[in-house]
């Protein structure tokens, strides 16, 4: 079954909506993951910053333990710190007296020593942060020791910011994930200076001594929003559900159409039967006339037979009895024909000869035509005209056309009707032509509409029902323009052979 364009369009729109929802959901999921990982990274950096504070406190205690610091112990503790905490790669104890020697894990430039002294003298107890001159990605933590106005030293830790964020987790090594660490004044220390994508900026590390700014970001591309395998699975699932739902809906729609068509067919069958019964009532007088002749003949022959029997003329009596039997059969045939006309039958689409339909209509309407003074000329071909339809329905349609023609010319001088049956172009064509007044132009458009009639007391159902019966077998019933005055109705239905050859 070919899908209709609207179904394919709806399917495409549904797939686009599914793709859009998938992209939004994936982007939101990635943003939530970035938020979680950024929070975890902030907690890790805050923990490491707290370790820096603890190291400064321990080193300050060693430096303040005596009037002169124990150089050996200080250097041993400093070496241990730099060994186990590689991000701390420089420890310096700078006396505020510029003449005293500097103790540290490495040489210290004089100008940097002066800056450390200045920061220690200016301290009010808080740890000072400053960039580490000459070392990229580094910053200095400066604390006075002891942490009082009578401080004698400036204690400094050199922190490698790149190692500070190192080993933060596998998430931060994924493609497209970026982070940046900056000094409180915004000077960059590590990572990209301006992460792009889904950015979480301005997150300050939870440390009073090192309020570094952590910026995180994620470059989200279409491959991230629409991962191939999940996207293909989603589209397949959406397509399966859509076509399954559409198939179920179509099945229900077809079932409703079939049920409605069955209801209409039942109504039409009852209407056709009612129409035949109504026509039978109209033909009651014709039936009386038809039966009068054979009954009168039977009565006369019975009386003659009694006389012959009384006189002993046996040979002549046999002929009289044969005549009575023939007349009785004639009366029985008349009754059977009218009984078949009035009795409902199951529909049939077997092939039958349409000439029989014309002959039955001729027999049924002959009394009415005779009583109305109408002459009907029937013309049928010598060969069978086979059609595949219900014989009773076709007989009713032809009956309605001929009866209407009789009523149209009734009471006119020289009232004539011509009924012509012929095969033509793969169809059986039945023309009913009368010499009556014709059909008025103002009712032609509604001629085959139910309840449209020009006859007083008529119901206006005959032509509408006849057209419906003919169209149900792919036929046509129309009023055509004939060469003579009057009305010409044409019924054309496919021949049985033409129907079988039709691929549709």
TrEMBL record:
Domain Histidine kinase: 286-497
A Pfam family hit: HATPase_c
Catalyzed reactions per annotation: ATP + protein L-histidine = ADP + protein N-phospho-L-histidine
InterPro entries with a match to the protein in the record: HATPase_C_sf (IPR036890), HATPase_dom (IPR003594), His_kinase_dom (IPR005467), HisK_dim/P_dom (IPR003661), HisK_dim/P_sf (IPR036097), Sig_transdc_His_kin-like_C (IPR004358)
Classification via Gene3D superfamilies: 1.10.287.130, Histidine kinase-like ATPase, C-terminal domain
Keyword Phosphoprotein included in the entry's annotation: yes
Gene Ontology MF, one: kinase activity
Keywords: ATP-binding, Kinase, Nucleotide-binding, Phosphoprotein, Transferase, Two-component regulatory system
EC assignment: 2.7.13.3
The protein, known as: histidine kinase
Species of provenance: Castellaniella hirudinis
């Amino acid at each position: 079954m070919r899908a209709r364009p609207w179904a394919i369009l709806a399917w495409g729109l549904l797939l686009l909506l599914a793709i859009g929802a998938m992209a939004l959901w994936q982007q939101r999921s990635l943003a939530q993951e970035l938020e979680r990982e950024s929070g975890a990274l902030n907690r890790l950096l805050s923990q490491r910053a707290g370790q820096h504070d603890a190291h400064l406190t321990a080193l300050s205690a060693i430096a303040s333990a005596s009037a002169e610091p124990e150089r050996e112990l200080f250097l041993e503790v400093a070496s241990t710190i730099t060994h186990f905490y590689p991000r701390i790669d420089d420890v310096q104890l700078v006396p505020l007296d510029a003449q005293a020697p500097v103790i540290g894990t490495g040489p210290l430039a004089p100008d940097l020593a002066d800056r450390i002294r200045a920061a220690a003298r200016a301290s009010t107890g808080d740890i000072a942060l400053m960039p580490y001159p000459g070392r990229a990605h580094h910053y200095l933590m400066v604390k006075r020791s002891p942490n009082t106005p009578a401080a004698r030293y400036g204690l400094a830790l050199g922190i490698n910011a790149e190692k500070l964020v190192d080993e933060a987790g596998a998430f931060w090594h994924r493609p497209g994930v970026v982070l940046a660490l900056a000094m409180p004044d915004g000077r960059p220390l590590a990572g990209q200076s301006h992460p792009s994508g889904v950015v979480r900026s301005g997150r300050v590390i939870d440390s009073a001594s090192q309020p570094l700014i952590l910026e995180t970001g994620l470059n989200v591309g279409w491959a991230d929003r629409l991962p191939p395998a999940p996207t293909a699975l989603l589209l397949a699932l959406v397509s399966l559900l859509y076509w399954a739902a559409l198939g179920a809906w179509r099945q229900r729609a077809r079932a409703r159409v079939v049920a409605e068509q069955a209801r209409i067919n039942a109504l039409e069958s009852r209407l056709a039967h009612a129409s035949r019964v109504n026509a039978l009532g109209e033909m009651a007088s014709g039936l009386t006339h038809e039966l009068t002749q054979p009954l009168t003949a039977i009565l006369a022959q019975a009386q003659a037979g009694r006389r012959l029997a009384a006189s002993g003329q046996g040979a002549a009596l046999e002929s009289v009895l044969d005549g009575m039997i023939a007349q009785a059969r004639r009366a029985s045939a008349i009754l059977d024909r009218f009984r078949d006309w009035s009795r409902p039958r199951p529909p049939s689409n077997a092939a039958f000869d349409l000439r029989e339909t014309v002959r039955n209509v001729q027999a049924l309407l002959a009394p009415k035509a005779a009583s109305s003074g109408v002459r009907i000329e029937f013309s049928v071909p010598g060969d069978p005209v086979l059609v595949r339809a219900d014989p009773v329905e076709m007989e009713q349609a032809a009956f309605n056309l001929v009866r209407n023609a009789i009523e149209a010319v009734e009471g006119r001088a020289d009232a004539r009707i011509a009924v012509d049956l012929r095969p033509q172009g793969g169809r059986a064509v039945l023309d009913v032509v009368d010499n009556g007044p014709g059909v008025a132009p103002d009712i032609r458009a509604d001629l085959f509409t139910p309840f449209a009639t020009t006859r007083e007391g008529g119901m206006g159902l005959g032509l509408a029902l006849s057209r419906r019966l003919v169209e149900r077998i792919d036929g046509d019933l129309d009023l055509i323009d004939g060469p003579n005055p009057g009305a010409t109705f044409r019924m054309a239905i496919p021949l049985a052979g033409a129907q079988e050859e039709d691929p549709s």
